[in-house]
Each structure stands twice: as structure tokens, then as C-alpha cells.
Amino acid sequence: DLQICQHRAPTCCTKKMEESYQAAVRRERTQSIQALNFELKYMIVGHITAFQEAFESLLRFAENRTRSLFETAYRPMAKEAAEPVKELFTDISLYILGAETTVESAVLRFFDSLFPLVYSRLINPGITDLSQDYTECLRLTRQDINPFGHYSKNMVTELSKSLWASRMLSRALSLGIEVINTTEHAALSKECSRALVKMQYCPHCQGLTLIRPCVGYCLNVMRGCLASVSELDVQWREFISTLEYLTSEMAASHELETALAGIWSSINEAILHAQLNGPQLSATVDKVCGQPKQREGNLSAASIVPVKEVAETQTFVMAHTSLNNKRREFISYMKRSRTFYASVAERLCDGDLVMRDSSTCWNGEDVV
Q1: Looking at the UniProt record for this protein, which Gene Ontology cellular component terms does it annotate, in alphabetical order (predicted)?
Q2: For position 312, what pLDDT does the model report?
Q3: 41: which residues sit within 8 A by CB, 6+ positions away?
Q4: Exposed end of the chain (fewer CB within 10 Å): N or C?
């Protein structure tokens, strides 16, 4: 009553043993593919972590730099500006990690929150009553009167260009892990598990426990079993090409590091622009939002000490070098895995599974 290991000679197998063999080959095949995938998956997971750490390090540098701008040059509003600055960098971090947000919404929300502070602390430092309604009016007015000139839009453009590739790379690496995990758990067809039993265990039914499959036979069986996995070859090669493109985009002229390092400078230029246009802004705001209460002996905007550029001593060199090295190392490894899905059968038939340098092997029917 044997279904798979039928043979003319007497046998020591039963139907129940054949069922056990089928369970064994399914388990072994999953373990073999997991072992093959392990190095590739380990490399991608390691780089996801390394990239994220490098991103976070750069973001921390940029955030600290921006905080120090307010603490050094714009002390009257430094305390109140801390929260909008923190929100801006949190939004940028979430965007890189793939959250459903945009760079534009993050930057414009920051400038919406910044305008009431700039208006009441720098342009009209005598304002005493900054009610919730008045603050909200200033926030909404910012979108119409554009107090920060082209600097807010420029910041959106620069960051969007540089952060896009980082965001896509982050999503692409997660997709790579998903693909590898899916192939590990691809179910074997009934025909495949029967073919594997015939190749690996049917010799045992004849007492031939030391005989292993012939190389060509093993390749035929494995290619048949892994046809669906090897179909990923074309897409996997395209995936590697996309990773190459994204890493080169990250290292191109709109570098992440340069854009993040320049955030404080863009904000500084935007605030200076608003201060220079203070009288016109005040006239427009008075018409739209009304006149707030002023402290007696109001400080005029003209008496504000001109803001000098903040001398920045912190460097991005370490984080910059670290990110560049990780990119190069990662893409070099991924290029070597270009044929990963085309060669799965060959690698599974390599090593202990088949007979090499021997005159006898199992061809599925007999010892040859």
C-alpha cells in the first residue's frame, strides 16, 4: 500500500512511515530555506537598525543646533519655541520612518506656531495680552501674509528632496524583510513533498541509508519545488537596483546631512526677514486681528539688537561619515545577493544533501 516509495525489491517501509517522511521533508525544507535566508535577513535587519540610529543621531544634532539658535539669538522666545522645535523634528523622524505625513505639513505647522512668538516677542515686544483667539488669528494670518518670505518654502523644498530617498530606503528595507519572511513560510505542494520523500527517504526503505541523491536529480526536484520562489528573481534584481538608486540619491547633492544641518540657518533667515518687514506686518495684522494690549513704554521693533548668526561648533562629521560608510557597505553586500532567488535550488543541493566525488548515487529509482 505504499504511495511514494514503490519498488520491486522487498521494503522495510509502511504507509505510516511515508507520512512521517513527508512531515520531515516539509520541516527540513523550511529549516534549509531559513538557514539560507538568515545571513541576508540579518544583514538587512542590522542595516535598518544602523540607518535608523544614524538618522536619529543627525536629527538630534540638528535639533540641538536649532535650540541653541533660539537660546543664543532669540532669548525672549526661546522657552516658548522649544515645543514647536521638538514637534518639527519629531515629525521629520516619523516621516523618514514611513508615517503618513508630509515634510510640507511639518514645516508649515512649525512656522504657523513660530509666527505668534516672533510677532509678540520680537516685532512687537510690548504686547501683554496674547489671548488664545489672538494667537490663533496670528497663526491663520501667517498663511496669508507670508511673514517669512520664501525661506519657509525653500526649507520645504530642500528637506523634501533630501528626506524622500531616506524615507523610501527605510520602506524598501522593511519590504525586503517581508519578502524574505514570506518565502520562508511558502507551503510545499503535495507533489513537491512526495518528490522530496522519493529523493531523500525512499533509499532508506531499501536499507540504503548512506546513499545520497545524484546532483542533477536533486537540482531537478528542487527547481520544481521552488519554482514559485525562483519567480521572484526578476523582482528581486529590480529591488536591488532600486536600493542602489536610493542610496546614490541619498548621497547626491540634496544630502540628508546637509539639509538637516541647514534647518537652523533657514529658520534664522526666516525670522530676520520677518523682523525687517515688521512695520508692514504689524499694519496688516492690526487690520485682520485687531490691536492687542500694549505695555506702557512699548519697545519698538527698531530698538531690537540686530541678530547675528550663531557660531556653531558642533560638527556633523562623525554621523555623516558613519552614514556614508553604512550606505557603501550595505549596497556592496546587497549587490552580491542579486542572484539570491535564482540560485536557491543550487544552494540547497550543495553540501551534505547530495553525493559529490562518489561513483554511486540515488536517481529516484535505483542506485546508479
Answers
A1: cell surface; extracellular region; plasma membrane; side of membrane
A2: 43
A3: 177, 180, 181
A4: N
